[in-house]
């Protein structure tokens, strides 16, 4: 069978008509002229007329053949034979796609799947015909071209295969296959092939319909070989999540962490000890999961104390199995010495107990008065007129309690404070100006995560009330109450509350607010992901039992805003005297303060960015990676970003703890990359999927010692025909020139 590398150029065969058209347009046209002596030439003309027609016809045919041969040669035809190498193997132009994702770290006790994949890649190289050219790409959820274009230097390819790095990235083979097909379709080669070496994890084929269509469309031009390595592994238990659950992370106080363990296998797993440690020291807490059914997850609450302020690494571990990478998970946290909270009292009252902030002050510092000075939360109460003498940057969070409205100067300062990373919490009440909240805080600035409707209910009676939702808590602030042992939020009674109207997440962005510079900056500040000056999408924190909104939050600039539908005192609700009020308030405060630290735990494959004090501008930072010696560190320049010195790092290919250090002045900060828990699901493609895949590509299950000769070369053999066609075209051109010269000689 004859195939063409550039079938589009076959359209050049239409040019065969050009010599014929030229011949017809330039035929001699005779004009009759009566001339007496013409009769003496009549006999000679009749004798030469047939010879001249034959000569012209022969030249036209040769010119048509010449054009046709050139068009066929440019289309790069090749003769494909299914018989055993009649013409010998053809040179192959190929791309090797080497899967180096997290699931390739599954081990049989001696070698990992990635080790086997590298051996299989070397066997492919050994089996390729002489003169073949190969590109090498490392694929996961992205494509990293080690050798972008096919090269004839197969020794270089072997070297890079042996040095290929395994990563903790997730798997998505669609980008790699798509790019490889497009790359090979541009190559002028009769034999083109893709060699995808992977473990057959179903997660990697999430774009199954698109991949099948691509392979079916490309198989006439590109032969695809999928080489599966490793034995199926159905039993795997891993840590799928580790998070700070206590809201705040104070120094020398017990801090609650939640460790989620998932059984990705089909059978029940038993006796799973879960250990928690800080800064790679001995475990500080432990819990044993007695039984975990297949496909189930269980969260475990463990506690730790952080001995000093600054950055710490909290690590959860379970016993190692065939995929040890997901048996350890590390979280970077920033311990704080104290939390300074500014309470703005909108209704001070005639006595302390009637103040809007009375219950807030006691809930924030839930210890006896003689120990209040040693507690890590330090509230300061002011009234609205006193705000003019307050500097918002001296506080970690600001709480507005039934504040009617803010003067323009204080409003601008508050907006700038939130944009720089401050936290704002708003409690409503009977004194607020709803128009100010909706028009200024809502529409003009975009601070509020919900719009205020009309109040509902009556505060001066006790018989009619509404309650909070009793289950289905999804926001991190309230997930604690998914555990029945933590108590309940639904026992609180609300007699009056504002109707909060949910906002459209895709609504218009607020206008930017000027930001003021911060003086005396000594602590590094995070760079939070935000859409420039736009507010983040509003999120529901808590609902009432009837489904209406009770509590909402949104990111704004680098800060966060939380809005409650009711009061902070007992004028409209009895929530402040319920046991759940203290943990709810502390977790909400923690969401405001720790929101700044979310950048400390980027996903694998993401990027890390952190603001530094002005003294560090244009200095070099050294970044050490998990499992790498300190001698192998990356250098990053601290540059100006969004008007502030920032260190950025985007080569996050491994899960675990990274350390960023600046020699002068000395500074060390830590961040921890979080792997995608879906990569721990080792379920492979089903037999039906493999059978369906085999209709479009060659699927080979490779084991150590097995030969890959049949998989390494495209089916059949190829003989390039373009060079013989080009030589024949040259010969035809020479013959045409000689005959044209001969026919044009004087007769």
CATH topology of the largest domain: Rossmann fold
| Uncertain regions spanning at least 5 consecutive residues | 81-88, 508-522, 527-533
Q: Roughly what percent helix?
A: 10-25%
Number of helices: 13
Describe this structure in words.
With 747 residues, the protein is an alpha+beta fold. It has four domains: 2-83 and 722-743, no CATH class; 93-233 and 682-713, Rossmann fold, CATH 3.40.50; 339-513 and 533-596, Class I glutamine amidotransferase (GATase) domain (Rossmann fold, 3-Layer(aba) Sandwich); 602-676, Immunoglobulin-like (Sandwich), CATH 2.60.40. It is 22% helix and 28% strand. The protein contains 13 helices and 33 strands. The strands form eight sheets. The protein has a seven-stranded mixed beta sheet. The protein has a six-stranded mixed beta sheet with strand order 5-4-3-6-7-32, with helices on both faces.
Compile the SSE list and pairings.
Elements: E1 2-4, H1 17-25, H2 42-74, E2 77-81, E3 93-99, H3 113-127, E4 133-139, E5 143-151, H4 154-162, H5 174-185, E6 192-198, H6 208-218, E7 223-228, E8 237-244, E9 255-263, E10 269-278, E11 285-292, E12 297-304, E13 310-317, E14 328-335, E15 339-345, H7 358-364, E16 377-383, E17 397-401, H8 408-419, E18 423-427, H9 434-444, E19 450-457, E20 496-502, E21 525-526, E22 539-543, E23 549-556, E24 559-564, H10 581-594, E25 608-611, E26 620-624, E27 633-637, E28 639-641, E29 644-649, E30 656-662, E31 667-673, H11 687-693, E32 698-701, H12 709-712, E33 717-720, H13 722-743
């Amino acid at each position: 069978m004859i195939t063409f590398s550039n079938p589009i150029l076959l359209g050049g065969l239409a040019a065969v008509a050009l010599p014929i058209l030229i011949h017809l347009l330039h035929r001699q046209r005779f004009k009759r002229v009566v001339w007496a002596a013409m009769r003496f030439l009549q006999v000679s003309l009749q004798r030469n007329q047939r010879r001249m027609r034959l000569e012209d016809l022969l030249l036209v045919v040769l010119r048509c053949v010449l054009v046709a041969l050139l068009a066929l040669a440019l289309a790069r035809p090749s003769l494909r034979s299914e018989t055993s190498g009649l013409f010998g193997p053809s040179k192959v132009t190929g791309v090797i796609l080497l899967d180096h994702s997290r699931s390739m770290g599954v081990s049989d006790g001696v070698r990992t799947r990635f080790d086997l994949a590298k051996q299989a890649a070397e066997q492919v190289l050994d089996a390729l015909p002489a003169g073949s050219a190969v590109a090498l790409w490392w694929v996961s959820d992205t494509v990293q071209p080690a050798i972008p274009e096919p090269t004839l230097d197969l020794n270089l390819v072997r070297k890079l295969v042996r040095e290929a790095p395994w990563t903790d990235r997730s798997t998505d083979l669609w980008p790699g296959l798509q790019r490889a097909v497009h790359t090979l379709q541009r190559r002028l080669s009769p034999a083109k092939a893709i060699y995808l070496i992977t473990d057959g994890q179903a997660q990697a084929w999430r774009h199954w319909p698109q991949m099948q269509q691509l392979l079916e469309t490309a198989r006439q031009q590109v032969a695809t070989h999928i080489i599966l390595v490793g034995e199926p592994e159905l039993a795997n238990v891993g840590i799928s999540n580790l998070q700070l659950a206590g809201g705040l992370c104070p120094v020398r106080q017990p801090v609650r962490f939640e460790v989620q363990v998932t059984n990705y296998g089909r059978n029940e797993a038993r006796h799973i000890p879960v250990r928690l440690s800080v800064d790679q020291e001995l475990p500080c807490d432990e819990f044993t999961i007695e039984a975990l059914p297949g496909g189930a997850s269980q969260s475990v609450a463990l506690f730790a104390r952080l001995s000093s302020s600054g950055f710490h690494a909290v690590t959860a571990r379970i016993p190692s199995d065939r995929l040890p990478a997901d048996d350890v998970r590390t979280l970077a946290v920033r311990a704080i010495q104290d939390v300074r909270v500014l309470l703005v009292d909108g209704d001070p009252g005639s006595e302390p107990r009637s103040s809007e902030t009375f219950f807030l002050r006691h809930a924030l510092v839930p210890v006896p008065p003689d120990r209040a000075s040693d507690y890590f939360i330090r509230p300061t109460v002011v009234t609205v007129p006193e705000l003019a003498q307050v500097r918002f940057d001296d506080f970690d969070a600001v709480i507005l309690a039934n504040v009617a409205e803010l003067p323009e100067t204080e409003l601008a300062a508050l907006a700038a404070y939130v944009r720089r990373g401050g936290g704002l919490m708003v409690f409503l009440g009977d004194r607020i100006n709803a128009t100010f909240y909706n028009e200024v805080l809502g529409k003009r600035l975009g601070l509020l995560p919900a719009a205020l409707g009309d109040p509902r209910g009556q505060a001066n009676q006790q018989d009619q009330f509404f309650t909070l939702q009793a289950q289905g808590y999804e926001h991190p602030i309230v997930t604690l109450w998914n555990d029945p042992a933590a108590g309940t939020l639904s026992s609180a009674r609300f007699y009056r509350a504002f109707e909060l109207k949910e906002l459209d997440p895709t609504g218009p962005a607020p206008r930017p607010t000027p930001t003021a510079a911060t003086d005396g900056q000594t602590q590094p500040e995070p760079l939070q992901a935000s859409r420039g000056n736009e507010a983040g999408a509003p999120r529901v924190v808590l609902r009432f039992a009837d489904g209406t909104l009770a509590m909402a939050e949104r990111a704004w600039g680098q800060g966060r805003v939380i809005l409650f539908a009711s009061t902070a005192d007992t004028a409209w609700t009895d929530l402040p005297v319920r046991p759940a009020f203290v943990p709810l308030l502390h977790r909400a405060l923690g969401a405001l303060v720790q929101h700044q630290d979310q950048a400390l735990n980027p996903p694998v494959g993401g990027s890390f960015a952190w603001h530094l004090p002005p003294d560090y501008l244009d200095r070099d930072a050294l970044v050490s990676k998990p499992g790498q010696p300190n001698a192998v560190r990356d250098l990053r320049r601290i540059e100006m970003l969004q008007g502030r010195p920032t260190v950025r790092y985007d080569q996050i290919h491994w899960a675990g703890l990274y350390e960023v250090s600046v020699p002068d002045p000395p500074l060390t900060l830590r961040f921890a990359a979080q792997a995608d828990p879906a990569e721990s699901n080792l379920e492979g493609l089903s037999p039906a999927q493999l059978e369906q895949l085999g209709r479009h590509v060659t699927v080979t299950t490779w084991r150590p010692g097995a030969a890959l000769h049949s998989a390494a070369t495209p089916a059949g053999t190829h003989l390039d025909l373009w060079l013989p066609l080009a030589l024949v075209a040259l010969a035809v051109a020479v013959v045409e020139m000689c005959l044209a010269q001969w026919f044009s000689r004087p007769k």
